[in-house]
Specification:
about 35% helix; alpha/beta
């Protein structure tokens, strides 16, 4: 079952979210968008986790500045996404995520994010206690926030050739948090897990997804 719903945050903001998965699922996931909105790819990601048995919700984080944002992957889309992201505070984004976790109710809840969402998933893991596990795929801002301490187990995925996350950043994250699982995919670039992007690497995406599902199964089931 999938549909678009509305959430209300603690600061009275109303945002939309894509919900998917069985209503009686024992575990839930908050899935955080790239800078392209809750688009077709993000809905596909949600439905994939729903097929694995999770109740899933993906909040429209851009609703703070513009409702209904859903973009493709052209250069102009990337520019627009960065412009929208710059207008939203981290505190407001965390409030949206907390509302999403609350909607999932009394379940074991994990969080996963991609691109910008990967960074925000890290911040949610360090600044809230709503989640039992966090996975972040190519979060470009994690290195800058590496000195924050997560409140749950975290698994990280990076592309070796990601221009936004150089090897020095990955090494800095690993040095700050040697206890965390982190994987680097040889030759992969930014967005290697998105089937609609030119950087997509099917084999790496499948391995990363398998590792992610095993991680969540360990901590949420």
């Amino acid at each position: 079952m999938s549909n678009t719903i509305e959430l209300k945050t603690a600061d009275a903001h109303v945002l939309s979210a894509y919900a998917s998965g069985p209503a009686d699922a024992a575990a839930g996931l908050v899935v955080l968008q790239e800078i392209f909105g809750v688009n077709r790819h993000m809905r596909h990601v949600c439905d994939t986790f729903a097929e694995a048995g999770y109740r899933v919700i993906s909040p429209a984080l851009f609703d703070r500045v513009e409702r209904g944002v859903e973009m493709g992957y052209a250069p102009e889309d990337s520019l627009r996404g960065r412009e929208l992201r710059a207008k939203i505070t981290e505190a407001n984004t965390i409030a949206d995520i907390e509302a999403s976790a609350a909607w999932l109710g009394n379940r074991k809840i994990g969080i996963i994010g991609y691109c910008w969402g990967g960074t925000v998933a890290w911040l949610a893991a360090t600044r809230t206690k709503s989640f039992r596990a966090c996975a972040a795929w190519y979060g470009t801002g994690i290195a800058a926030a590496r000195n924050e301490n997560p409140n749950c187990p975290v698994q990280l995925h990076f592309g070796e050739k990601d221009p936004g996350i150089p090897p020095a950043d990955i090494e800095a994250i690993r040095k700050a948090h040697p206890e965390l699982e982190s994987f680097v995919y040889a030759g992969a670039g930014h967005g290697f897990g998105c089937e609609e992007r030119s950087a997509y690497v099917k084999a790496d995406a499948e391995v990363a997804q398998r590792r992610t599902l095993e991680f969540f199964k360990k901590h949420l089931v």
